[in-house]
């Protein structure tokens, strides 16, 4: 018997790991001049949500559509939000509506996590 991850957990764990990877880079870049610190905000957003995705992924009683939706939304939403920040910091030109869309997807992801937790089975 091995302790390999279940096949359905590999992809969420990979993307959560990538969120952590990029989040640390954004935090580091945001802490050095001439950066304004806006990158640090994006990094914090990614680093906050990466362990949340990993936690949701490992919950056995929490399954079905709410689990999958929470995973997807908590991966995509923060990535879109942080991507907007990276674009804005790099070019000086924000992409209209990208940050609110990313934030809205993230909010929906937390709502799915909450509903899924209530509906969890033993």
TrEMBL record:
Please state what the protein is called: DUF423 domain-containing protein
Which Pfam families does the annotation name? DUF423
Family matches, as InterPro entries: DUF423
UniProt KW keywords: Membrane, Transmembrane, Transmembrane helix
Question: What is the species of this protein?
Answer: Asticcacaulis biprosthecium C19
Residue ranges of the TM segments: 12-31, 37-57, 69-91, 97-118
Question: Lineage of the native species?
Answer: Bacteria, Pseudomonadati, Pseudomonadota, Alphaproteobacteria, Caulobacterales
């Amino acid at each position: 018997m091995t302790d390999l991850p279940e096949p359905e957990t590999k992809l969420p764990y990979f993307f959560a790991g990538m969120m952590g990877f990029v989040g640390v880079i954004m935090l580091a870049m945001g802490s050095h001049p001439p950066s304004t610190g806006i990158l640090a905000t994006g990094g914090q957003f990614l680093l906050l949500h990466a362990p949340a995705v990993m936690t949701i992924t490992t919950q056995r009683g929490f399954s079905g559509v709410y689990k999958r939706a929470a995973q997807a939304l908590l991966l995509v939403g923060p990535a879109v939000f942080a991507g907007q920040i990276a674009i804005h910091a790099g070019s000086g030109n924000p992409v209209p509506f990208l940050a609110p869309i990313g934030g809205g997807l993230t909010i929906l992801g937390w709502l799915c996590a909450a509903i899924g937790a209530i509906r969890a089975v033993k």
